[in-house]
Amino acid sequence: MTAYPVPTRKFYDLRDGRISAVHFGLTSNPVKLIMLNANGFNGYSYKTVLEPLGVHAIALDMRGHGMSELPTDIGGLKNWHIFRDDVTEFFERYMARPVILAGHSYGAVTGILSMPKLKDRVSGYVGFDPVLVPGIARVMNRLPGGRSYMRKRLPIARNAGRRKSSFESFDAAFARYKDRGAFRGFSDEALRDYLTGGLIKDGKQMKLACNPLWEQAIFVAQGHNVFKAAKALPPNNSHITFAGKYGAVSFKSARNYMANIIGSENMVFDNDRAHMFPMHDPDYAVQRLREALNKASLNR
Question: Over pLDDT 70: what percentage of the chain?
């Protein structure tokens, strides 16, 4: 088994608090890649993907996730612009050189939303199953009671709001999630990584760092326009993998629209992969990231 440097956690000041970042690889080397987590997950969840790259990579804990210390407004969240602003501020304040920007699910969308402001600060983009919804979702977001309706009617949002958030111990949480729900197909290592980065002490118990109601609010806050932002993606070094197993989080019409923007040759739709494929098959995710690093000459 390959021995990797122990991941280290650092905190970085942003305008209204501190964002948590897990550093992988040789931290004495320049940063080569930034990873943005899926909704309800955290930066440490991507250890099996980022460690094997052999480069200095940072996985951010998005606002309201992991160990980040940033305020959340559950009732007022209408779009994902606040996450976009967190990422762009982090880059502007702390990234001195261009890097690869990667993301999973809502993190993949946030990365795209960030691109019009980041531009030359990003030399490649890799998206793992970004959430692409039809225009009607943005219309619903603007209607009175629209987000409330979606919280009740959208299964993924409804289930998130009901998620158990407190556990007697780390082991109890592990037993609860093992081979269930979103964690089907996770190796024991990947599940432990998620819990390591996603549980915090709560008296004598452990609780989820990401409030299930915040996770739910993110799912229904669809007032952003990812397609407009996608026009700023690196033209020669962008790739998106979409997953279809157990149901896709992207609509076909939305994928077709994205293909018109970035080119169908830069997209893959795989019906044999589930939404959490970076954890199910980290080797595939590593391969996609290495390709982007190589194209940008950031592989050392």
Answer: 91
